[in-house]
Amino acid sequence: MNTTIKEEEGKMIASFSGRLDTLAAVQTAKDVQCIIDSECTDVELDCEELEYISSSGLRIFISILKSVKARKGSVVVKNINDEIKKVFEMTGFNKLFIIK
Amino acid sequence: MLTRTRVPAEVTFLGCVTFLLATGVIAEHDVLESFGSEAILVTGAFYIILAGLMNTGVLYWMSKHMLGEPSSFKKAIVSLMTPAAVFSAMLGCLEVTHLFTDMVKMWARKLSIAPSKLLMALSYAATFGGMCTLLGHTSNLVVAGLYVEQTGKALNLFAPLVPGLACTVVGTILIIFLRDKLPPRESPEVSFEETSDYTVELLVPTDNEAVMQTIDEAGLRNVRGGSLIEIVRFDKEVISPVPADEIIFGGDRLIYSGQINELLELKISHGLVAADHHVYSINEIDSNRKMRTAYVSFGSDLIGTRMSESDFEKRSDMVLVAVARQGKRVNEQPRQVIIQAGDSLLLECPSKRDNYLEDTYKRSLTFFDSQFVPHLGSRTIISASILVLMFIFSSSQVIPLITAVMIAAGAMLAFGCCRMDSITKYIDWNFLLSLGAMMVFSTAITKTGLVSMVSDPIVELCANNPYIILIVMCFLASFVSEIFSNVSAAAVFFPVIYHQAVTLGCDPMPFTIGLMTSVTISYATPVGSVTHMHIYGPGGFNFTDFLHIGILMHIVLLAVNIATIILVFPLK
Fold this sequence. Notes:
The complex is a heterodimer of chains A (about 100) and B (about 575).
Chain A: E1 2-8, E2 11-20, H1 22-31, H2 33-37, E3 42-53, H3 55-70, E4 74-78, H4 82-91, E5 98-99
Parallel strand pairs in A: 2-3, 3-4, 4-5
Antiparallel strand pairs in A: 1-2
Chain B: H1 9-22, H2 28-35, H3 38-55, H4 58-66, H5 73-91, H6 93-110, H7 115-130, H8 138-151, H9 161-177, H10 188-194, E1 198-203, E2 222-223, E3 226-232, E4 238-239, E5 253-258, H11 260-263, H12 266-269, E6 290-296, H13 312-316, E7 319-325, E8 328-329, E9 344-349, H14 354-360, E10 365-367, H15 378-395, H16 401-414, H17 423-426, H18 429-447, H19 450-461, H20 466-483, H21 486-503, H22 508-518, H23 530-539, H24 545-568
Helix pairs in contact in B: 1-18, 2-18, 3-8, 3-15, 3-16, 3-18, 5-6, 5-7, 5-9, 6-7, 6-23, 7-9, 7-23, 8-21, 8-22, 9-24, 15-16, 18-21, 19-21, 20-21, 20-22, 20-24, 21-22, 22-24
């Protein structure tokens, strides 16, 4: 599992690749802490290379969403595969995030 | 082993028969003769007679009007055991136990007696009564069938009456004396209503308003009647203990511990559902679905399975909500519990089709609140008359037992006491297959020379004394039937005991009757007795409950049985 964070024109973009399972979630939570701690109101989570997401992974997405919403910002989730899309639909996450 | 096995008995037995055929131990005609033997035909036809008696309300009427309102526990035992023993002699011990179970439970509550105490008395009475006639136990028919094969002479319907009656009288007196030792167990379905500590599983639909709230915000942690003990996520992650700020996801399975009735209120107050599959909206669930309790009977195909891993819920449209074992909470997520015989299940069921569910899944579950209520009318009298005539003609040897039973079964159908198009439904084919296989094993034992190998050393060891041999064989057969079943013990021991009687130049009749009655004396475990097996779930018993008085009953009644046979039947 690999997480890359970059900043482009005031937008923070987190790109995930691999499987975000329970084990990988610990490191990923540390990797995205900078987004939670930042003042950025425009966050994009790029999941193009994300193969799988566990409930622990979803918890990280929720932490990001909560912090950005507290700053009156928005989080966009991009390029999710069909399997992850199903998980989002089942858990109700598709109604919380802007999915592109 | 029987409480956990997943392979049905008849499959195992038929596998063994196939092996014996393939290896040439037995020939095709042996198998055909065994499956077409008197025991099989009489048992099969008797199912039709019982269906007729059940459908026309004869059995319902008898069980309802025989119990009365006794003033003490002692009188209650007598009031129950007397008719149960008499009916068991006429209709078979298992059928009578099955028939009386629900009635006795209601009666016990009315008399303020623990149902388990009266259920155990019922089980003993049915076993005792069944010892008196050939129809009382299937093992009696097996022995009688094998006797006919060997001698060509049919046994009278009341052939085991004298030892059977002696055991019934002594056994009933013993139960009255030992009544305080009968285990007082809480009735499982009542414990679902009254116990404050059960585990309940409910699912959060995707569109539930609690999704994305914390457990505390949603008011789902400490609820009326219990508390949340764990959350199981869609990917099987288990969160336990559950922190107050844990976010709720759609599809979460919330596991609560507490009082069931109050926890089930969460379905209405918080929009949670009981479901085996993911639910997106509460509207997908029929709001008229209802809770029913059932117990897992011995031999159920659910034994050893987990609901979460089997397709039972999907097939049956029932959802497991809670599990109780011997009146206590099972400290696991209900759908992950490995189901055992005797477990009580709380199931969410469709609003209609009660009879269909009971009928379709009768091999898996027995519902406590069976919906069957027969209609009493002219056919009630007709079917009762058919039964009485069958007994008169077969006991007076006007016609052989097999003919009498077949005619009675035909009469039940002809007079509309049971439906012709449902004839196959009334017959327990699985049991008949097992029975047929047992008859094959009996033939195999004779053909392989195993009989002489087992029989001769025992004869020598007992110094050719027929009395000692009879005692030893009855003891061995009775012991084996405690571990396996009386039918298996009867089928396996008959060729041996018959061979011994012939070798010693004795009349095989006393040995046959001795074996017949001894194999039914198996009270120390629920596995050894079909009636104990039947009451195991409804009574909320422990496996060891049967040991306490069972061992004493076993020893005393075996002694009474052997003594009566020696006194009544001359061995030479």
